[in-house]
Amino acid sequence: MGQYYSQNKVEVVPSQVNIPVSYRNTGGIIKGYIYPCSAYPYKNIESIIRAEKKLNRENKVIDILLTISGCENRYAKKMLRMANGVRGIHFIGRQDRDSLFRLYQEYGLVMASKIESYGIPVAEAMQVGTVVTGIVEPYLEERVYGYP
């Protein structure tokens, strides 16, 4: 790599996120999943809602917390309508960092996004020690490779 880049110009940034010990999920037991998302189509929220609808038809429910309110834009309103009557889908709105880490103590992370760059929620959830799952996309496979 040194033939292409000066070693003085390449900086390796560890994927660790500074999380207080009090936020660690040590039990491994979760109440459901949280999807820290914004209200944009590439976040693929409809796939989460469709999956929950399928579970509902089998008389099953997994609680899924979505960090949108359903009022942000046209896409959010569409997701709110799509989730109407679907048991287990909860629109909890935007969460501050502290609230999000508290939720990671009790909920696993689900990722449905079609595109991500670094995937900060994945790094945060892994540091907390919670369950991480999602659709099969290269960004997620790369981030969770080797994660128990």
How does this model look, in words?
With 148 residues, the chain is α/β, with parallel strands linked by helices. It has one domain: Glycogen Phosphorylase B (Rossmann fold), CATH 3.40.50. It has five helices and five strands, in the order βαβαβαβαβα. The protein has helices spanning 45-57, 74-82, 97-106, 120-128, 138-144, and strands spanning 32-35, 63-66, 89-91, 108-111, 132-134. It has a five-stranded parallel β-sheet with strand order 3-2-1-4-5, sandwiched between helices. The longest helix has 13 residues, at 45-57. It is globular and about 55 Å long.
Helices and strands in order, then pairings?
Blueprint: E1 32-35, H1 45-57, E2 63-66, H2 74-82, E3 89-91, H3 97-106, E4 108-111, H4 120-128, E5 132-134, H5 138-144
Parallel strand pairs: 1-2, 1-4, 2-3, 4-5
Short structural description:
Helices cover 32% and strands 12% of the residues. With 148 residues, the chain is α/β, with parallel strands linked by helices. It has one domain: 3-Layer(aba) Sandwich (Rossmann fold), CATH 3.40.50.
Features:
single chain; 148 residues; alpha/beta; Rossmann fold; five-stranded parallel beta sheet; 5 helices; 5 strands; 12% strand; globular
Question: How would you describe the shape?
Answer: globular
Largest sheet: 5 strands, parallel
Instruction: Return Rg in Å.
Output: 17 Å
Helix content: 25-40%
Task: Provide the CATH superfamily.
Answer: Glycogen Phosphorylase B
